[in-house]
Amino acid sequence: QVQLVESGGGSVQAGGSLRLSCAPAGYMRSTYCMGWFRQAPGKERERVATVYNSGRGTYYADSVKGRFTASRTDAGKTLYLQMNSLKPEDTAMYYCAARVTRSRDCTYYDMDYWGKGTLVNVSS
C-alpha cells in the first residue's frame, strides 16, 4: 500500500497564501490522476482539485476557482496546491490522493491511495 505524505499546512490570516505539497513515501507507479480533497469539522470530504496525467486538464471546485492552483512535477508523482486569497471557509484538513489506473473520473470513491492530511487554518 502506497502512503502519500502531505506538507505545507499551517495557520494564516484571511487573504494570505499557503502552498501544499504531496509525495509518495516510497515507490509509486505512474498515476492516472492525483488530487486534493478537504474536510472541515462536521462536513463531508470535498473534492478541491484534480490533475490528470492524460491531457484532460485540471478540475477545480467552484469554491476555489481563481484562487487555488494545482500542479504536478514532470514525473507526475509530486503534487502541489498553491492557495491564494484564503478565506476562513477554506479551513479544513487537506488530503492528497492518487489513482493509478485509468477511470471515468477521479472522485473520492475512485482514488487508490491517500495521505493522512495536513491542517489548514484560516483566521478572519
3D structure, described in words:
There is one protein chain. Helices cover 0% and strands 47% of the residues. It starts with a strand and ends with a strand. The mean pLDDT is 94. With 124 residues, it is mainly β. It is built from no helices and eleven strands. The chain is globular. The strands form two sheets. Strands 2, 4, 5, 6, 9, 10 and 11 form a seven-stranded mixed beta sheet that branches. A four-stranded antiparallel beta sheet has the order 1-3-8-7, with no helix packed on it. The protein has strands at 4-7, 10-13, 18-24, 33-39, 46-52, 58-60, 68-72, 79-83, 92-99, 113-114, 118-123.
What is the gyration radius calculated from CA atoms?
14 Å
What is the element string, with H for helices and E for strands?
EEEEEEEEEEE
Largest sheet: 7 strands, mixed
Q: Number of DSSP strands?
A: 11
Helix/sheet category: mainly beta
Please tell me the overall pLDDT: 94
Report how far apart the termini are: 39 Å
Morphology: globular
Which strand-content bin applies to the residues? over 45%
Uncertain parts? none
Q: How many helices in DSSP terms?
A: 0
What is the helix fraction of residues, given as a range? under 10%
List the helices and strands and how they pair.
Blueprint: E1 4-7, E2 10-13, E3 18-24, E4 33-39, E5 46-52, E6 58-60, E7 68-72, E8 79-83, E9 92-99, E10 113-114, E11 118-123
Parallel strand pairs: 2-11
Antiparallel strand pairs: 1-3, 3-8, 4-5, 4-9, 5-6, 7-8, 9-10, 9-11
